[in-house]
Amino acid sequence: MARAIGPRSIQHGHHIFVYNNIRTNQVVYSLTRAMNNNASLRQLPYLGKKTVPAALRKDLWLPLASISFPSSSQGLTAFRKLREFRKLHETAYSLELITQTEGKHKGTLLGKKKRGKKLMDQKANSVADIAAVLLKQEDAPKPAEKVVAKRNVAKRKKGTRGSPPAKKDDGAQTVTEAQGVGSTEGVRIRWANILDAQFAETWPVSVVHDDLRKDRYAAADPTIVAEVPADVSKGDVPETVAGS
Fold first, then answer.
1. What is the pLDDT along the chain (244 residues), one digit of tens a residue?
2. Cβ distance 207 to 188 under 8 Å?
3. For the purposes of burial, counting CB atoms within 10 Å of the CB of 209, is it exposed (0-12), middle (13-18) or buried (19 or more)?
4. Are 77 and 113 in contact (CB under 8 A)?
């Protein structure tokens, strides 16, 4: 007996949930509304003492944003890229980032504690990464259309030689792989604080920005369609964002 596929399996990859530590500004990405403790902790690199907690506290990790995609393949590709970019920010940084810029120790490296605190602050980088990933998807070449021809297999008569080959069905179907590559149409970002979008210099015009409804410690269910104000449209972001 086939097992029924639940809504969680169907929606896998359609949404990315971004969580932010309100004390350290660390960021984790999740494919589910509620953070998985073990999976989220694996995203946090060891940057010094007390930089990786033993467990995640729900009162410290709050939703930063949720990103909705028209296809799961596009969402999963973005999820993988965001984690790669975040890994680079925390492991392949320049020495200038962890160098004293003032005082009598100017020009020397920060101490371990200050260095860890500096590298944990990934909120601004994460917002800029989201914009960069979406811009890259928008500029990517669109997938070529694949023509799928349905063939009717003709049974050969037994003992008959020279029977005609099977004919192709006249009604050939044209199927376009909707992977979201080459377009950000249908992408929607819901922000806990929409002003956080200004951490990125520019956004794709087709991306819709909206407010994120909070559901206690987890992001609101993105599959529940809320009433959209008339003034919310594609590319709508605060003037400080659009003009940056």
1. 444 444 454 478 899 999 999 999 999 999 998 888 888 889 888 888 888 888 888 889 999 999 999 999 999 999 999 999 988 888 888 888 888 888 788 888 888 888 888 888 999 999 999 999 999 998 877 655 433 334 444 455 555 555 555 444 444 333 334 444 568 889 999 999 999 999 999 999 999 999 987 766 666 666 665 444 444 445 555 554 444 4
2. yes
3. buried
4. no
